[in-house]
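User: Can you predict the 3D structure of S-type anion channel SLAH2-like? Sequence below.
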Amino acid sequence: MELPASASEISDAALSQVKQPSLEVRMDHNGELPASVEVKECHASGFDSICVENETNNFSNQIKVWQPSNGDEMKLCISMPSSPTNHCHVDEAKGLENGVPDSSANIKNINQQLHLNHQKLKDKRFDSFKTWSGRLERQLSNLRGKPQEIESDSENIEPLPLPVDRYFDALEGPELETLRASEEIVLPDNKTWPFLLRYPISAFGICLGVSSQAIMWKTLATSPSTKFLHINLIINHILWWISVALVAIVASIYLLKVILYFEAVRREYYHPIRVNFFFAPWIALLFLALGVPPSLVSKLPVPLWYVLMTPIFCLEIKIYGQWMSGGQRRLSKVANPSNHLSIVGNFVGALLGASMGLKEGPIFFFAVGLAHYVVLFVTLYQRLPTNDTLPKDLHPVFFLFVAAPSVASMAWATIQGSFDNGARIAYFIALFLYFSLAVRVNFFRGFKFSLAWWAYTFPMTGAATAAMRYSSEVTNIVTQTLCVTLSIVATLTVTALLVTTILHAFVLRDLFPNDIAIAISDRKPKPHKKWFNLTDIETFLKFASSDNKDIEAALKIPTPEATSV
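Assistant: Sure. Here are the predicted structure tokens for S-type anion channel SLAH2-like:
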């Protein structure tokens, strides 16, 4: 039996000649295929006819199962309207009886082919977060001679930035990460989103932890108080290159997110808490500059400092101005331990600038950081009763309290040229905060792993590095033991977290869940009608009795006697 070239060559007259089983599969309104198909009787000629109708886009896809006359094998051909060619799959015929294929075998084979082809269909529910909203893809398809369907005007509307009020109305919790029960998200919550949409800006916390280790091991190898350890600079060399590779990988992935899903990045930037993590990429670059091995670069170029500090200065102008000007982004409303990231950049920049020989610039950033650190420290210490307490999963971010004073002590010591009283005050504050958190063991265990755990790392590393600087000024067995102990704890913590992160990312694959915070709707949900006022009902039941007069008094209904008077 000679098969036609395509389904379009089969005439309606040929279809009415022979009756054989056919299959009909209908998609639901979401474009999903059913788990099984229903066998129906219809007219066909030498083949089974399968009609797949997509009710959403109003087109039909024809899938023909050709059955040769000898009954040896059959060929499954799928004709898609968006493609000029047919995609055929040859499979052995099973359960042939009298030249007619068995329906159950057909259903199984065809279902597999339908689902494979359905996976290729484009899911347009994420188009609103794409940079070009699919327009570039449609233009490329038109250039290839494949015209796309015309979208409605509502789909061409560019999304507007969410006002800060929507974040507070739609989300709850101290980090504004949990969706309120009355709210809905604009992305599907019953499936895993594309990886870039789930990739948060907080992933740069991993870079902070690893790159700070390069600084600590460089200080261990060069500090006079730790010469007895005989640390080789090769460790600093290896850690620095690992840090460079890690920063490059994390930054490249997030840059792809900026290019492909700019709306998701914009929503992170306008998030009142998440915006603090936009300091992390630049702080990581400052750490790389501080931890560069001496064998590679003996003296860094001065313009590098201005290049790295310019974006930090611009971010501070925005965030510090919002803290001071009031509104929904005032500090008393958005105060969170993650705000320390916007402070640490000043002290890290001052430390790098002073080590390059600069004077005025480092002092400027040190003064700005010190003023806002005092305000933030007091605000976080006296959290108002109306502020939410941090959930247990976010307890590690409390270690960010240690980061700013420990780096500030080293920055001031580098500016002054010695570890004087000002540097010691900042160092002792950091040491006290470190011990006050470390003794609370139950405060930091019993919760699920997340990227928030990396908040442990660079504050602990900063405290260990500051302890080495102090030990160089006050050298004795106590200070040397302290800096060695803090260094061991910081190294073990970073190693354990790095291994755990790799395990959750590549084995368990649960490191990046759906980012609900960026998928909130720009419209408030419609309020539900209240048919009864529960407060009035409770008051009525409390004061009313079985006596009619008490009931009338409770309801304030005038009695006939009172009316007649």
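The chain has a mean pLDDT of 75. The first strand starts at residue 19 and ends at 26.
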